[in-house]
Amino acid sequence: MNGRIIRASAPGKLIVLGEHSVVFGKPALALAIDRRFRCDICPGSGILLNGAGISPRLHPHIDTILRRRNISDLRIETESRIPSGSGLGSSAALSAALIGAVRLMRGEACGEEALALEAFETEYEVQGRASPIDTSTSVHGGGVAVNCPEGLGTPIWHISKGGNSWTVSDIPVPEMTFVVGYTGIKAATGPLVQKVRKYKESNRFASDIIDEIGEVTRDGMRAVSNDDKDLLGELMTRDHKLLSILGVSCRELNKLVDASLEYSYGAKLTGSGGGGSMIASLTSRRRSAKP
Ligand code: PMV
Q1: How high is the pLDDT of residue 291?
Q2: CA gap 242, 279 in Å, rounded
Q3: What residue numbers bound the domain in which 144 lies?
């Protein structure tokens, strides 16, 4: 790369509770992870990504970010330690990092709230629907809760779209160990979000499941605040069952969750599902009986 290079990076995340139902304005809890997406940008002629052109189909987030800003000349080089389509927030981290770099290059405001809003709008456009949980966690880091019970977190910003609204809060999280299991199956978020929307529109019980995930997530946030790992684990496993009923789990995810229950407080898929990853909250001892 020639010219002045701007570098920005952002972390991936894991959703502890509340994926999918959060798209409908329910609560969710996520943690940033120590794997980041990094991008370097500098002015150039045309759009070059790692030395090649981009396509809206293969690079929908980059294409959307540049199109929304009318950018047609830019060189981008990326490096990621977050596998794409793994449910660990690679596209949110990509969006946060690229938007941050572009804002820096253009001398625009780089405050967290402005970044989180633009990254959310990008995901919303690409997926057809989205919540701010991934993008806000990637921008803010640490523990992030959306629509949490009063007093559990410190509100940092508020986002509304499509009839839903989300208050995003920073939430303190005690020391916990999560193991991530990857199915090896890449799954794009957009189609799974649309699948849940269609299911909700065609099945009158789907809204009850979404409400129940909301309740489980609120209880889980209280369990996190009380450092009650047993209860949090139990709620994670219950959330996995509810997500399975919504149709976003798969055989491989169920196998990994089942296999980990003996060694964990609880386990569930994380992110959009359909493949991707699961998480288990680790105990230091083997559990005697499966729940
Ligand atoms: O799989 P990921 O990392 O894109 O997570 C998606 C989380 C959803 O709740 C399914 C969608 C959203 O926008 O919140």
Answers
A1: 47
A2: 15
A3: 6-170
